[in-house]
TrEMBL record:
Recorded topology in the membrane: Multi-pass membrane protein
UniProt-recorded name of the protein: Inner membrane protein ybaL
Record-level Gene Ontology MF annotations: antiporter activity
Source organism of this protein record: Chromobacterium violaceum
GO annotation terms (biological process): proton transmembrane transport
Amino acid sequence: MVMAESPFSHRAAEESLPLREAFAVLFFVSVGMLLDPEVLLKDTAVLLATVLIIVVGKSAAAYGIVRLFRRGHHTSLRIAASLSQIGEFSFILAGLGMSLGLLSARGQALILAGSIVSILFNPMMFALAERFSRRAQAAA
């Protein structure tokens, strides 16, 4: 907040960009190393169900909540698409669930694989949201 009001805010953002990208690389490398390929091969049906719950469930919930705030269809679709994946916080929660004995190793592996697949689907969700938005505008 303080930096945003400073005349140096743009310079600080530009200079921190390489650091942000380095951390993004570390994040995706570490997530890739945690991925159990066996989940992709042996638990394909359960993984697809997990991904559907993540992508469709979160998108529908986000769309509904945004519509409750009386925002337009286009805005609701964009927000739903942007929230259709899960990320690093889910890894923390899954790890905590495992350490407390609430989640099995298989469950954690499914959450990790589901999050990776949902992140990969995210650009497609934005394309679908734009297509649905254009159709709704054309029909109106």
